[in-house]
């Protein structure tokens, strides 16, 4: 009797579909444990140093073959592998416990992983897979230094099914040419997800118990647009998805060809597209997409790693100034720089002693709350931003605003810092714009008051969605609840955008929602005319914009807001997008 056709839900990356044979990838690593003699300790140190150097060389080889966005991720792996604090701890434990180095390395890194995972937040818990990735690479090189740990054989164009997915897994499988990934855990902001999306590999995360439900070598379908996996599809499924896959392939190829062109709707409305970046090196890749402005530069990376790999040193004013200057002078348009969004639920080693573990970290001491309580740290950043403002069109964005008083205090602090620089005869742009990132329901409710004090506003859709729905977006058990197009989210977005437009205030959106092509018509229909996103999303988003009219998008939003059922609204959107894709190809 044939296996039953089964549809499973998950969280898809991008708008991809794929058909292939399943390949169960249960990549377990058994680390031996044995005692050593005192005279063998130095030899264990040498083995560790060689394994770390070999791991570094392997990653450097990979870096040569990827673009600047991916180099950032892999460079972080090198910094973690060479972390002097971790290496010292491993060597000390080898000496004190007289145990083999691979076992000690395993326990030390696992302990580090557990500490990081304990902070229930997106920036850290999803980066924990990077730590496991690094651990596996070093231990494999310790166990078998003569073998390239990245080499193994699997069927080409298969659908890889696994419990977890690391960046190294994505790089290895991409070189083989797999058809897609289905993963039990993970999330769209993990480095593995970022890599998979950049390579255009169809990927679905959070598919419950998939490694036990799927069998090797069976036909399987991934539909990232509908967030589903079809086990044992019937002939009709296979036929329909084969045609759809080919159409989408042509659609994406055309999108990339047209990426440099302006994004203008069918009724001749230009939509401004900006880029979200994490490091200055990403500036190189935005040129091919015809992007002039940076809609969001996240400054947290400066506080996580220093240039020399020291994870415990706060970035100096001078270092920050040089980074901001480089970005500002490289851009043809504006550069919106978000002030430090860390603390409470987000941890940087450089902030070690002032980090606090909280019971409710997402509601805790973070972003502007943290900065206004640590004004020395905040002062260094603001001075650097103001100094760099003479080298380009820098704008300052304050995140996590909850009250008007909070924004006014931050604004006052910036103005006081201007006066300091003035007395020191240091140049800065006195007309630098200061905006607010709207990501709390309270800020949305008082948006009419905030826009009187801001030069611009930007919507952070990730946090805003989670706060509106009282739903931790990193909790895999709540993925069913976290919905960017829930009617409550759409209503609050409409309120923010309409109030801003009624008061002639610029409003942009820089959250993950802005880079999801299927949500583009909704945002246009709500009134957004400027979007910021990862450069990997630009081509497809621009293509969607060119295929629609504002009138069509407004009708779509009206129909979604009139419905009380989220599932029905989702089906309305899916029909709209499928129609667009059919028209395009």
TrEMBL record:
Please provide the record's keywords in A-Z order.
Answer: Coiled coil, Cytoplasm, Kinase, Magnesium, Metal-binding, Phosphotransferase system, Pyruvate, Sugar transport, Transferase, Transport
One GO cellular component term of this record is: cytoplasm
Coiled-coil region: 404-431
Task: Identify the residues that bind phosphoenolpyruvate.
Answer: 298, 338, 462-463, 473
Major localisation: cytoplasm
**Which catalysed reactions does the entry list for this protein?**
L-histidyl-[protein] + phosphoenolpyruvate = N(pros)-phospho-L-histidyl-[protein] + pyruvate
Q: Where in the cell is it found?
A: Cytoplasm
Active site positions, chain numbering: 191 (tele-phosphohistidine intermediate), 510 (proton donor)
**Could you confirm whether the keyword Kinase appears in this record?**
yes
- Residues that coordinate or bind Mg(2+): 439, 463
Record PROSITE patterns: PEP_ENZYMES_2 (PS00742)
Q: Name one GO biological process term.
A: phosphoenolpyruvate-dependent sugar phosphotransferase system
Please verify whether the record's keywords include Electron transport: no
PEP-utilising enzyme C-terminal domain segment(s): 254-548
Instruction: Look up the record and name the cofactor or cofactors this protein needs.
Output: Mg(2+)
EC number(s) for this protein?
A: 2.7.3.9
Which stretches make up the Phosphotransferase system enzyme I N-terminal domain? 10-127
According to the entry, every stretch annotated as the PEP-utilising enzyme mobile domain falls at: 154-225
What's this protein's family per the entry?
Belongs to the PEP-utilizing enzyme family.
Q: What biological function has been recorded for the protein in this entry?
A: General (non sugar-specific) component of the phosphoenolpyruvate-dependent sugar phosphotransferase system (sugar PTS). This major carbohydrate active-transport system catalyzes the phosphorylation of incoming sugar substrates concomitantly with their translocation across the cell membrane. Enzyme I transfers the phosphoryl group from phosphoenolpyruvate (PEP) to the phosphoryl carrier protein (HPr).
Alphabetized PANTHER family for the sequence: PHOSPHOENOLPYRUVATE-PROTEIN PHOSPHOTRANSFERASE
Q: What is this protein called?
A: Phosphoenolpyruvate-protein phosphotransferase
Q: Which organism is it from?
A: Brachyspira pilosicoli
């Amino acid at each position: 009797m044939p296996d039953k056709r089964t549809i499973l839900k998950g969280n898809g990356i991008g708008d991809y579909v794929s058909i292939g044979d399943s390949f169960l990838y249960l990549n377990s690593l058994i680390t031996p444990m044995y005692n050593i003699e005192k005279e063998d300790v130095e030899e264990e140190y040498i083995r560790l140093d060689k394994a770390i150097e070999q791991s570094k060389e392997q990653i450097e080889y990979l870096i040569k073959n990827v673009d600047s966005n991916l180099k950032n991720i892999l460079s972080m792996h090198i910094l973690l592998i060479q972390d002097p604090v971790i290496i010292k701890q491993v060597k000390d434990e080898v000496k004190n416990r007289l145990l083999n180095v691979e076992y000690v390395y395993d326990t030390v890194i696992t302990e580090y992983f557990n500490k990081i995972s304990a902070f229930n937040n997106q920036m850290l818990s999803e980066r924990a897979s990077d730590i496991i990735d690094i651990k596996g690479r070093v231990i494999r090189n310790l166990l078998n230094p003569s073998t390239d740990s990245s080499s193994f054989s699997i069927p080409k164009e298969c659908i890889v099914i696994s419990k977890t997915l690391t960046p190294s897994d994505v790089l290895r499988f991409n070189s083989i040419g797999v058809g897609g990934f289905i993963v039990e855990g993970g999330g769209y902001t993990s480095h593995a997800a970022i890599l998979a999306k950049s390579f255009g590999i169809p990927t679905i995360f959070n598919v419950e118990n998939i490694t036990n439900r799927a069998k090797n070598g069976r036909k399987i379908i991934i539909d990232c647009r509908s967030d589903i996996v079809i086990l044992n599809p019937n002939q009709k499924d296979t036929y329909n998805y084969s045609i759809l896959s080919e159409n989408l392939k042509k659609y994406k190829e055309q999108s990339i060809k047209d990426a440099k062109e302006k994004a203008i709707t069918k009724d001749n409305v230009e939509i401004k597209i900006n880029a979200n970046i994490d490091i200055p090196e990403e500036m190189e890749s935005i040129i091919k997409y015809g992007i002039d402005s940076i809609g969001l530069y996240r400054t947290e990376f400066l506080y996580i790693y220093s240039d020399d790999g020291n994870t415990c040193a706060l970035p100096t004013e001078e270092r920050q100034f040089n980074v901001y200057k480089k970005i500002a002078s490289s851009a043809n348009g504006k550069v919106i720089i978000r002030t430090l969004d860390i603390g409470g639920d987000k941890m940087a080693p450089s902030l070690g002693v002032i980090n606090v573990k909280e019971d409710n970290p997402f509601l805790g001491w973070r972003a502007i709350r943290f900065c206004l309580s640590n004004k020395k740290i905040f002062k260094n950043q603001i001075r650097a931003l103001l100094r760099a403002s003479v080298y380009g069109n820098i704008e300052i964005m304050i995140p996590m605003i909850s009250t008007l008083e909070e924004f006014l205090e931050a604004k006052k602090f910036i103005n006081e810092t201007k006066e300091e620089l003035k007395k020191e005869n240091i140049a800065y742009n006195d007309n630098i714009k200061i905006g607010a990132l709207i990501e709390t329901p309270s800020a949305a409710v008082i948006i009419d008051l905030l826009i009187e004090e801001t030069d611009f506003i930007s919507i952070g859709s990730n946090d805003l969605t989670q706060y509106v729905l009282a739903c931790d977006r990193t909790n895999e058990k709540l993925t069913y609840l976290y919905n960017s197009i829930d009617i409550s989210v759409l209503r609050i977005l409409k309120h923010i955008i309409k109030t801003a437009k009624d008061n002639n205030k610029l409003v942009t959106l820089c959250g993950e929602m802005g880079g999801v092509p299927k949500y583009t018509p909704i945002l246009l229909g709500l009134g957004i005319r400027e979007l910021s996103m990862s450069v990997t999303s630009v081509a497809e988003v621009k293509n969607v914009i060119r295929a629609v009219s504002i009138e069509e998008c407004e009708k779509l939003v009206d129909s979604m807001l009139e419905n009380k059922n989220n599932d029905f609204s989702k089906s309305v959107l899916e029909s709209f997008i499928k129609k667009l894709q059919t028209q395009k190809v």
